[in-house]
Amino acid sequence: MLTRSFARPLLAAPVLVLALGLAACGSDDSGSASDDAGSSTPPSSASSSSSAPASTDAAGACTYTPDGTQAQVTPPPADPSVTGDVKVTMDTSVGEFHATLDAGKTPCTVSSFVSLADQGYFDGTTCHRMTTSGIYVLQCGDPTGTGTGGPGYSFADELSGKETYGPGTLAMANAGPNTNGSQFFIVYGDSPLPPQYTVFGTVDDATVSLIEDVAKDGTTPPQDGAPNTPVDIKTVTTD
């Protein structure tokens, strides 16, 4: 699964548990991916929390649960702070990434992302993982750059069970069910991942093109590792 790092289980340390190694908020580089659909493990993140409550309670409030690690930020409010489409600009070392977040379908995920961005959590971080075989993703959102970092809380998945991961998809990495934190991945090529990663938005074609250019320069180690052309996030702003 995509965990905070790719579940190397790509995200062996919060690995992209992208069954190919996408682990977003988990804590493993080695094996947070629940399935392996290719040579890469899903995006994963190394989260220490094995499960979290449903994303919203009966009143529609979000639940953000301390994950046992040191808190890095103030948790988002229980009441989703945003609605509708949210525009995001990530100023990176390879150009601007432009995204549109869907708070209508994934209110708790988008509220968390916006809260982290507003607190400067993503500023000065590096996208620590890229996969160039099997699945095609760039994973970011870990200030430690190891795939094991997170904000100090986790929250539940917001899934329909019909998620697909084509070019332009913006989704959460995780270390297993309901272990979302801060790690996310951007898909730049069709990736056969299971519908286990919350899709909370999209990026535009120009952003996909920038990431494709980075992928052409390869990774270390090959196919699943740090991009040889560093992708450093300078700031993340929301409209």
From TrEMBL:
CDD domains: cyclophilin
Coiled-coil features, chain-numbered ranges: none
EC number of the protein: 5.2.1.8
Low complexity compositional bias, start-end: 27-63
PPIase cyclophilin-type domain sequence ranges: 91-238
Family, similarity comment: Belongs to the cyclophilin-type PPIase family.
Function: PPIases accelerate the folding of proteins. It catalyzes the cis-trans isomerization of proline imidic peptide bonds in oligopeptides.
Protein name as annotated: Peptidyl-prolyl cis-trans isomerase
Organism field: Nocardioides panacisoli
